[in-house]
Amino acid sequence: MVQRRGTPHPPYRMAQSQSPRVTIPSTPPLPEMARRPRPFSSIPRGNYGQLPSSSSLPMPGPRSRPSSAAVSRASVYSPQLPPHPERSRLSLRPSALRASSTSRDAQSEGNIDGQGQADDHLSVDNADALNEVILALDMKQNGNLGCAYYIASEEALFLMEDVSMATVEIVETVLLHAKPTTIMAPPRVPQEVHDKLQRGAHDEGGSVQNGVQGAYILRTLKSVDFRYDAGVDKLLGVQSQVADFQNMRYDLADAGRLYQDDVGDQHEYSQEVRMRLGTIINLESRLAIGCAGAVLGDLRRRRTTQYLPNDPDALVAFSVKSIAMFTLFDSMFVNADTMISLQIIQPEYHPNSQMRGPDKSSMGAKENLSIYGLFHFLACTPQGRHKLRRTFMRPSIDIDLIQTRQKTLAFFLRPGNAETVMQLGKDLRQVKNMRSTIAFLEKGVDSPGRKVSVRNGVWASLQRFALYALRIRDALAQMTAAETIPIIVRVLESVRSGPLVDIGESISRTIDFEQSSERERTAVKRGIDANLDEMKRQYDGMEHLLTEVGEKMRGDIPEWAQHYICNCVFLPQLGFLTVVSLNQQTGKPNYEGEGLNDIWEQMFVTDGEVYCKNQRMKAMDEQCGDAYCMIIDREIEILYELSVLILDHQDAIREASDIIGELDSLLAMAVGSGKYGWVAPRIVHENVLQIEGGRHPLQELVVPSFISNDCELSGGNGEEQESDPFDQGPPAPSSGDLPSTMILTGPNHSGKSIYLKQTALIVYLAHLGCFVPADRALIGITDRILTRIATRESVTRQESAFAIDLRQAAFAMNFATRRSLVLIDEFGKGTNSQDGAGLLTALLCHFTGLGPERPKVLAATHFHEIFENGFLTESMELAFAHMDVRIDFDADASENQVTYLFKLAPGRSISSFGSRCAAMNGIDEAVVERAEAIIMLLARNEDLEAACSKLSDTETSKLEMAEGVARAFLEQEIEAAQSRGRMQRTGGRYRAMLEQILRAESSTSTST
């Protein structure tokens, strides 16, 4: 309901001010009136609606057409509106904020910025509410893990299949998968999981934990909130519009009550609903269902605390319109260590601190140099970027889906489609995410915030979406062989021309965008409603009426008081007023109706003038009524009727917006693949990996030239030998001669780590359905990429760097399957060389000894003693390779002695050339030579203690000279002094003897 209260607004004098204080966008401005010395008429010209905000549409209420200002405010300002369907309203913000958008109490005299401030609050809260992802997680001490989460923008509830023997890494992957803003967990979760969640959390007040801004709110609930039975009951009672439940209606507010068109036996109906529920979720996932109950309970708590009883907004707030299961194993398993090591997604704070906001909707993050960063700027729509990020977070292992995406990308990259793809990109840039737009419309908000122009408001966004969605549909329909591409077929089916044409024409017929831009609020066109046009016409002619009334008033009052009357004005809500000059000494008006049988009631004082209400003004109030507010009420009714019409098509709009977002994400992948010169890999079900001319997608962009390399690996065949139904193409080449493990050696800076990462990235990109940076690639389905590359150290972790390395290696050992790809880079370097070499040898022996269940492993190491002592030897399962270099010890400069070729070669390297790398990086030459000498001693297995205690030639010469001096001195015959005088005489003789000895030794050393 639109509320208007008695805070007065200052008058607007047409002859004294060039810019009105009240801006009403609903009618064109009146012609300029002639300037007069003391005008009598003053009304807000052409301004029908700044006071009652049209950004909040009215609630249904009793209708009454007022005839005078004395009519009750309830009847004047609460017109009866068409019945509003229950599904067409949604509000996720607290009632206090909703009230602030319509209340005028907070405004001071002469201030009309209150609405803008309310819009600011509304924008922040709406953005936060739509971005809410509420996740519940439960984990038993035996490692069984369950999870469920709710996405507010999609009004969808997702349940994860229960996972056995889960670890903290799996929990971390779940968080990466869902990106929650709130996490709920029972106190029974293992301590290490609780510590993990605590490290990334902030409290509900938004304060910072340990000086680090948290990513989500962590709440600990009672274990009873995660009970399985309670979760089932709440799922049965949730309000849902899932396709399988179209003949049923559930209400979240009363989780125990069930509604049905034909009410029968309650027990039978409960069993039927339970059976139907079991068709879309796995009722055996007991932990996940308990977590779903906790999420639904939290949604009900939010509605109870944020909405007053019987609040219509509460009927649809936090609704659940879809329920679905998901499993981490429908996609390739990739944990946070792998994401960071391979630089797949790397958000970072924006370097400009002014871009960092205080709330969750404006964290100011930007994408760093990453694989996702190569594509996300190519997506043109918000929903397209969201879908693209989700695709990158969940690489698929469905071979049909992967091949379908590859076919789509190849279709868009055809030379004949280049012009159409370019035009599609231009059209997509005009499309916004309709889910957020519809959510604003359901709340009755036509502009997300004060700083958002009308051209970017709800109505303009809907109109542009209708126009450009149809243009996109027509462009796709005209493409050759478009019927063979599934995404195009889905766009043609989902983007229905009928509803979109109705929406576009209704908005164009109703909204005057030109006037709306001028007046910075929504304006209704003339010709839409005859009553509205008549009210505007009468209001526009009110200036002439006020002029006549002012002239008559001058003639009625005494002549001495005529110059005290400034003018007559009309103010919304206050009606007609007479303006009298103020006596600065007494603080009263200079004229108060003396000589007339009338009472001049003082209403308010501002700018040295008093605004009074007298009998003549009251009569005009009775005659004309509050025309200003009546115009606003009718305009709001029209906008409300338009919103109801559009909300009748909200499902079609959301469906079209979502499918356009998916199209945008695929177009971004296609454009990026063509831009970077990538090729389509061949995906097979065989456990094989063959890459020719592979490149690192990030490294090749930052170096002048990049040397490509090949890779050939084959994992175990497992126990099954029958043909694979997923492999639709010709059989893959025989992989029987390919190793499952390859160990790389070579100098530092030779490209070993880049080789490992590029191989994993090619596999990762292939499972996205994207093209890959290679000349040719044959890639078998890979279920997991496990890495031991990067060590993420932190002061909050109670682990050393070596302990982190061991944990990563242990995780790879426990979770690797024969279809996994394992990357190991310099494992064991965190401890002494003997222990490190032993651990690496044991780890590689473990993988190669798994037989038919062995995974594909790529390892890089500098532990050459493993090979020199015969701990690992080449075999069918194990191959050696190295990064080739050229050595020229005769080169003058140390940096020219080692030439890196960055080319993979068979066999192993005999040295890491660490000393040469040190010299190239500025280490002193004496240090380098000493290091090389020690390296040679170690290579010959000599005693380092004896070698290090050996004296140099210079030190030996000095010691020999000292020895000769001592011996010569001992051979001298020295007499004992008997008296003091005798000692003084012999002192000079001893000195001469020593000098003679030193001269003799010096001459001997010189001659030698």
TrEMBL record:
- One cellular-component annotation, GO: chromosome
Q: Which InterPro entries match?
A: DNA_mismatch_repair_MutS_C (IPR000432), DNA_mismatch_repair_MutS_core (IPR007696), DNA_mismatch_repair_MutS_sf (IPR036187), MutS (IPR045076), P-loop_NTPase (IPR027417)
Q: Where is the composition biased (Low complexity)?
A: 52-79, 91-104
Ranges of biased composition (kind: Polar residues) = 15-25
Q: Where in the cell is it found?
A: Chromosome; Nucleus
Task: Write out the ranges of the annotated region (Disordered).
Answer: 1-120, 713-743
Q: Which Pfam families match?
A: MutS_III (PF05192), MutS_V (PF00488)
**Classification via PANTHER family:** DNA MISMATCH REPAIR PROTEIN MUTS FAMILY MEMBER, MUTS PROTEIN HOMOLOG 5
Q: Which organism is it from?
A: Apiospora kogelbergensis
Which family is annotated?
A: Belongs to the DNA mismatch repair MutS family.
CDD domains attached here? Answer: ABC_MSH5_euk (cd03281)
Name the SMART domains for this protein.
MUTSac, MUTSd
Q: Keywords on this record?
A: ATP-binding, Chromosome, DNA-binding, Hydrolase, Meiosis, Nucleotide-binding, Nucleus
UniProt superkingdom = Eukaryota
- Principal location class: nucleus
- What name appears for this protein in its UniProt entry? DNA mismatch repair protein MSH5
For this UniProt entry, the molecular function terms from Gene Ontology, in alphabetical order, are: ATP binding; ATP-dependent DNA damage sensor activity; hydrolase activity; mismatched DNA binding
Q: Which GO terms describe its biological process?
A: chiasma assembly; mismatch repair
Outline the extent of the DNA mismatch repair proteins mutS family domain: 820-836
